[in-house]
Design goal:
- The structure holds 2 protein chains of 2 kinds.
- Chain A is mainly alpha-helical.
- Chain A is built from 6 helices and 1 strand.
- Chain A is globular and about 65 Å long.
- Chain B is mainly α.
- Chain B has a single domain (about 5-90), classed as Helix Hairpins.
- Helix content of chain B is about 80%, strand content about 0%.
- Chain B has helices spanning about 5-25, 30-55, 55-85, and one strand spanning about 1-5.
- In chain B, helix 1 (about 5-25) runs antiparallel to helix 2 and helix 2 (about 30-55) runs antiparallel to helix 3 (about 55-85).
- Classes of the chains: A mainly alpha, B mainly alpha.
- Strand 1 of chain A pairs antiparallel with strand 1 (about 1-5) of chain B, so a sheet runs across the interface.
Chain lengths: ~170, ~100
């Protein structure tokens, strides 16, 4: 009962943050509500018994990735979103499309609603078990993702460096 | 005991909010954050199914999704910075040509 109450409270915070992300027009407010969503999702992971995932969610997602977002928003001095003709068209097309999609999703879920319930904390996800799985069964995907991260870092550095246009006389030396 | 469909419903709501934000938002950074929201909805479904069927692979996949999200955020934000340098705008309606 307590678990259901906790699930409901933090699920409500999740949904409220997600809706606030859509409603706010300034990107920094959207970023802060996304942080609220990520933090309450970490509590949901704790309720599911995935302690390590919850910790990584807070450290990597709410910490590192969102710091990157906030940093870029402040670096570019992003102001409030201006309304254009495109945004009206997007609302006209986007809202019904999303509604149809979510109604289909909810209908499928409710039709299959006898799938049982998740026992809380029944699946302990201690770091050593996860590490065992990650470094034995999923070793190849792990290595591939490390290459992916390396490529992403190099790509980010290449993309974000300012292109210096050399003076006409210097071109030969570069 | 929390029923599994509750978790799936929450994950579906988060995913739908992400799709809606992707469609209606015009600021390129907010569109990026909507993508992160969609990835998080999927992560919640992964962890819920992992707990339901007592298979830890679902939790391992969450880490892979996080790594991909981090790589995507790094490259995407670098692209945003590059676009802002050449166009001086973050509005996607005004970024309609790949060439300057």
């Amino acid at each position: 009962m307590l678990h259901l109450a906790l699930f409901c409270v933090f699920g409500a915070i999740c949904v409220a943050g997600a809706v606030n992300l859509l409603v706010q027009s300034h990107p920094i407010n959207s970023a802060l509500s996304l942080i609220a969503v990520l933090a309450s999702l970490a509590v949901e992971y704790l309720l599911l018994g995935a302690e390590f995932v919850a910790a990584v969610q807070v450290i990597v997602y709410a910490g590192a990735i969102m710091v990157l977002f906030v940093f870029v928003i402040m670096l570019l001095n992003a102001g409030a979103e201006e309304k254009t003709r495109g945004s009206r068209v997007a609302i006209i097309l986007g809202v019904p499309g999303m509604l149809i999609g979510s109604v289909l999703l909810a209908w499928t879920l409710l039709r299959e609603s006898n799938t049982g319930s998740v026992p809380v904390g029944a699946l302990p996800g201690p770091p050593n078990t996860i590490a065992n799985l990650l470094f034995h069964d999923f070793l190849l995907p792990f290595e591939v993702t490390s290459v992916l991260v390396l490529i992403a870092i190099m790509g980010a550095v290449v993309l974000a460096t300012r292109e210096e246009t050399p003076a006409p006389g210097e071109r030969g030396r570069v | 005991m929390v029923p599994l469909p509750y978790y799936l419903l929450l994950s579906g709501i988060l995913f739908a909010c992400g799709v809606l934000g992707f469609l209606i938002k015009r600021n390129i950074i907010t569109i990026f954050m909507s993508i992160e929201l969609m990835l998080n909805g999927v992560n919640l479904a992964f962890v819920a199914f992992a707990a339901q069927w007592k298979v830890l692979s679902g939790q391992v996949f969450v880490f892979f999704v996080m790594v991909v999200a981090a790589a995507e955020a790094a490259v995407g934000l670098a692209i945003i910075i590059a676009v802002y340098r050449t166009r001086e705008t973050l509005n996607v309606d005004q970024v309609n040509l790949l060439k300057l």
